[in-house]
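Cross-posted from the bioinformatics board.
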Amino acid sequence: MERKIAEINALLRKIGNGELTAIVVEAETYVSTGDIPKEVRSAVARAVYGVLEATRNELQEKFYAEQIRKDVEAYRELLLLNAHGDITISDGSRTATVPGKLGIDTVRAVKGRAAALKISAEAALDEEGEEDD
Amino acid sequence: MTKRKVNARKLLEDDARIFRAVLELSPTDTLEMSDGERTVSVSGVLALMLLKALKKYVSDQLDVTLRSLAAMDDEEDDDDD
């Protein structure tokens, strides 16, 4: 979905720069912009821009809502971590192992933060839901 | 130094080493935490925020540990005098 949004943003930039040169329907060039007056060309560009922008905004809202849902799920998983044994933490290249009581305290600290973030994320999701109503 | 103090010092030094290892973790796109049975992977802004919270906690703990070690050093110096 991110790529789709980026593609639409690129198209919006081109149309905004006056780079609309033709309207193609089903692989046939219906109208080449050289054939029509400048004012009509501008009107068409504005119409296309408006539709694309609305599509982009809708996709962005869906994307953010999806991200928030993924984050809420991640918080839930974090809160289920068992603090009774060794905890390993990795950034992809380095790994740190925190054993025993230190692990318990470390997990508690992370869980505290995750719980606070979960509440914010769920509130944001609820707001999204209310806006759609 | 008594055996008890030697053991206490070693525990503090081990703790300091662990804390430093955690502080070496880099801000990243993906952070994994595992308790041996369950592994949770978080990505994006969440990974950054959690790592920041983790490092803040560990940094505070490292300060406490280093102060305790320094206090032990002072005690030893007093004993030597």
